[in-house]
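Cross-posted from the bioinformatics board.
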Amino acid sequence: MTRFTVTYRITASDARQAFARAQGIAHEQTVEVPPDVVPQGYVRDEIVGRIEELGPEGDSVFRAAISYSPDSAGPDIAQLLNVVFGNSSIQKGIRVIHLDPGEEILRRHPGARFGVEGLQRLAGRPGSGLIAPVLKPQGIGAEELARIAYLCALGGADIVKEDHGLSDQRMAPFRPRVEAVVAALDRAEAETGRRPLYFATLPGPFERIEEAIAFAKAARVDGLLTMPGLFGFGLIARIARDEALAMPVMAHPSFLGSFVLPEDAGIAHGVMFGTIQRLAGSDISVFPNVGGRFGFSEAECRSIAAACLDPHGPGRPILPSPGGGMSVDRASDMRAMYGSDVVYLLGGSLLRSGEAIGEEIARMRRALDA
Amino acid sequence: MTRFTVTYRITASDARQAFARAQGIAHEQTVEVPPDVVPQGYVRDEIVGRIEELGPEGDSVFRAAISYSPDSAGPDIAQLLNVVFGNSSIQKGIRVIHLDPGEEILRRHPGARFGVEGLQRLAGRPGSGLIAPVLKPQGIGAEELARIAYLCALGGADIVKEDHGLSDQRMAPFRPRVEAVVAALDRAEAETGRRPLYFATLPGPFERIEEAIAFAKAARVDGLLTMPGLFGFGLIARIARDEALAMPVMAHPSFLGSFVLPEDAGIAHGVMFGTIQRLAGSDISVFPNVGGRFGFSEAECRSIAAACLDPHGPGRPILPSPGGGMSVDRASDMRAMYGSDVVYLLGGSLLRSGEAIGEEIARMRRALDA
């Protein structure tokens, strides 16, 4: 059974300490007992992580590739992540910089149902960047959100996506909101013959998520937005693996920032917003764009897009979706940077156009197609 | 409707920038649009976060208390956390250092079903520290784990807890494992008349969690261990709010370390492992103990215990549960530090005793009662 391999960047004063720390990780992430009490045989030989590679990366920084048995991860994505970084997340100076799932984990976690090609086909725009305006702000009513959706549809939006802060609050509860938006898109379609995909934000509580998924499907929602930082990556896998449901998943980075921000701990940008999203089954991975109000660098954003699109990555390539400070004026720069396999989120800046939202989206389309 | 208040520590060069950042958070966490497009009236007046207090905390560090409407958070714990720190988690130099839920959020999230008193009563040890050996390591079979449970029960353990790395792997699948452990505890009870509480680790995948909970209840498991970093805090609330189920919840810190480690970002130790756990409904909050292989300081551990036990905190006071490097030899030091409202996790070190695990637990009991 092919083992899966996690590469960690480890802070250590010298090679000896680096080896001790790598050994610590190999035990911590699996048996979680000291080496002297690990049972001989299968547990010691297969379950305990195996240091495959260890070398210096820089001043007091080492790189350790540790392989694990698929037995350790079992069938579930949460337990896979538990092995990758569960307890090690609590230790200083350990950062996950690469994850190679290997054949067996790939078999268990086959990835996105739709991916780049599937999504572009669903949106009727093969090989092209998709424009996804966001329905917001939180606090306005379902009918007002639906009106924005209608204007976006008239303007030629490819995806109409709900803000991740629209949950099931009394101002625009999930069910009436979804019904109002679907009705607005029906009207737009009747008028123009074209219809954007509609991604609704899946609300909690936990015990009503299944009902909410079923409701969304029955109401003709096209895709679901979820926040793995708050609901877990297992919810993404649950949606992606449901053949009868057959709905694409958009993952939002809310509550995941603390993993990527520290340089010497956490999880690298490309692994969190690329590799792990692909394994879980996300079709679209939202992340904060460079130059907006979030502090991601251009290199970090490029690493995310590369991990989403890497033809050798796990499962299907998926669509990176930069958002946060995205605007029509930046369209051609963004196109130069990200190319055509991308979902451009248009958020707050779009609302400045008032009734002219549609024209702004059409202008974005022209800029991308130029 | 009482607003809830989050206090952030913000990095800023001067008071002017601190104010701009605080205003940024107030918008980011709610409407997520620039101030100039926020609708007048209810959305601007109620939904947008309100800076209640802003002042210097140190060199280039400010403290901002921002209040939010319960309307913004809605009924679900995931959306509450989304307002507290969702997108702000992705911005540098913002750390949540306090969370005051206020009356309305407390009404929606009443907290732990059992808490300190309830758990001590269930364990038959009112006012006393509880000893909780851990069943491990991952990789051994269900019968071997059950045998350890049996020895722990004979030794007088108060809680027998499964390692968080025991999921539903083929070496010890969830159902046969649970059945074997329950049978072992039945046998110990028949022999001694005393029975520890048994906390089983709830496995994924997402779509089978309900089945697993029902199975655990039917099999006479006493409590459930879950990892909110991987499964979400909504799962804790789902268990805590289920009156018919009436099972206590133990929360494990796996995959949550990245939130607390950075000094200038993330979420403070006491908020993450105290306040938020209490709001979600955890009865026991596991965290890495000082002096073990994790790097938490004594002050950080004390802040967690204080937040768990604060009589003015949300819901019932809950049991802090330091683990990781805990051993019988440290019992009296630990008792001096944590007092009697605490669950002492005994992990890998216990396995060194082999057949004498029970004697070690009895020795721990004597040290705590001395």
